[in-house]
Specification:
- It is a single chain.
- This protein is α+β, with helices and mostly antiparallel strands and about 425 residues long.
- It folds into 2 domains: about 5-270 and about 400-419, Rossmann fold, CATH 3.40.50; about 280-330 and about 340-365, no CATH class.
- About 25% of the residues lie in helices and about 20% in strands.
- The protein has helices at about 15-20, 50-60, 110-125, 145-160, 190-195, 200-210, 210-215, 240-245, 275-280, 295-300, 365-370, 390-395, 400-419; strands at about 5-10, 25, 30, 35-40, 65, 85-90, 95-100, 105, 130-135, 160-170, 180-190, 230, 250-255, 260-265, 305-310, 315-320, 350-355, 360.
- The chain has a 10-stranded mixed sheet, with helices on both faces. Strands 2-3 form a two-stranded antiparallel sheet.
- β13 and β14 (about 260-265) form a beta hairpin.
- α4 (about 145-160) packs antiparallel against α8.
- It is globular, with a radius of gyration of 22 Å.
């Protein structure tokens, strides 16, 4: 079986960097030939410029198979056949609407993105799928917990796949950021891997035999209480799920032969921890230093506060938020980076250079790349579309490369065993 990959919502190439052990010396990209990335799509609908796509092309080369177009407008049949489909897709509204003819339709503008993935599953039937999303996907929407993920699982089942999922906090496995994301691995029932995995109980699959437990070990303790299993007759189709389904998905689980099992698990890791202090640059431009007249603003943003606010109907309520470390603790991994990193924002990281002299600075773009485990200056491209503000945004929107690096190497073994 060929080691070919199609990358959706590619961003600046996080999956490709991880799968192919990519490095960058400031001039040349060195990419191992672990996987052949044969098609990639990146499109940002909210901006005129396409900084992420420009970065992808500058690092990996321009190609007719590097496509900057709305995925919803692309004929899925033109996508090359591939072994693995990967992507970090947005978490939005995946609800289903029924038309007068009782056909399934799409409700929610951005929610259409999941259905584009579903169309690729139906059209191309890739043997393996690896997706990444924010962990709240498992419990969205708030009005009907678990509905969106239930729709996804039913879609996979309808197309002949088994699924394993796991919420991974990168910092709990030695990586330099406290970033929780759900990873979803699906494999088609035509694969040898499906036949092998279906021989295990769900518990054994999740705790010791699956792709996630094999790379990110968990403690052998049962923490979940309440319902942890559900059969396919309880989520008989996506319309039923949209209207009726409500289920508490824990941070790990699997669906095999239409039966869902979910478990609450804890990491089991005692290796080296990479801290925020480990990734800081010793030399940096003075422009990253916070001016003295801005310090009080920063301290206010980072501090605890209670503010009286009004609802649209005139009713008052108390908005409160707790204190965030000022400056950051350098002996632990970085907090979760957001797309607002580097701006005067409560969530931005502040480094104490000399606290006695009130000398502080923000992170540099290179440091944000290191926190996400990209090569230094990966987003420092010649295109005018990639401003420094966009560099911060790209890293706040990216995934931790080290996680997909481990999963990519393990997937190589899975694909080799298909032959």
């Amino acid at each position: 079986m060929d080691k070919t990959v199609v990358e959706l919502f590619a961003g600046v190439g996080g999956f490709r960097c991880g799968f192919n052990d990519v490095s960058f010396d400031g001039e040349n990209v060195i990419e191992q030939d672990n996987w052949d990335f044969i098609w990639a799509n990146q499109w940002e609908p909210s901006t005129k410029t396409q900084a992420a796509f420009d970065c992808y092309c500058e690092r990996f080369g321009e190609s007719e198979n590097h496509v900057c177009e709305d995925i919803g407008k692309i004929d899925k049949s033109i996508i090359p056949d591939h072994t693995v489909l990967v992507g970090g897709f947005p978490c939005q509204d995946y609800s289903v609407a029924r038309s007068l003819s009782n056909e399934k339709g799409i409700e929610g503008k951005k929610g259409v993105l999941w259905w584009e993935i579903a169309e690729i599953l139906e059209t191309k039937r890739p043997p393996f799928v690896l997706l990444e999303n924010v962990d709240r996907l498992l419990r969205s929407p708030s009005s009907q917990r678990g509905r969106d993920f239930g729709i996804m699982l039913r879609t996979f089942l309808d197309n002949g796949y088994a699924v394993e999922w796991r919420v991974i906090n990168a910092a709990e496995y030695g990586f330099p950021q406290k970033r929780r994301r759900v990873f979803i691995f699906a494999y088609h029932n035509s694969t040898n891997y499906y036949k092998n995995m279906s021989e295990f109980s769900a518990e054994k699959l999740v705790y010791c035999e699956g792709i996630f437990s094999s790379n990110f070990p968990i403690k052998d303790v049962k923490l979940a209480e309440g319902d942890t299993i559900i059969s396919s007759d309880k989520f008989e189709d996506v319309v039923y799920i949209n209207d009726e389904f409500d289920f508490h998905f824990f941070n790990a689980g699997c669906m095999v032969d239409g039966v869902i099992n979910t478990y609450k698990v804890e990491p089991n890791y005692d290796g080296k921890i990479t801290t925020l202090g480990d990734v800081l640059q010793s030399d940096y431009d003075e422009k990253y230093v916070i001016p003295q007249d801005r310090l009080e603003k920063w301290k206010y943003l980072k501090g605890s506060k209670k503010i009286e606010r009004k609802k649209p109907n005139g009713e008052t309520y108390c908005y409160s938020e707790g204190k965030i470390a000022f400056p950051e603790h350098l002996d632990v991994p970085a907090r979760t980076m957001l797309t607002s990193e580097g701006t005067t924002n409560r969530s931005s990281h502040i480094i104490g250079v000399d606290e006695e002299k009130d000398f502080y600075r923000i992170l540099t773009p290179v440091e944000t790349e290191r926190i996400q485990m990209f090569p230094d200056n990966w987003t420092n491209i010649e295109s005018k579309s990639m401003t420094e503000r966009r560099r911060y945004f790209m890293m706040g929107n990216a995934l931790v490369v080290g996680i997909v690096n481990k999963l990519g190497h393990y997937l190589e073994k899975i694909v080799e065993n298909e032959d």
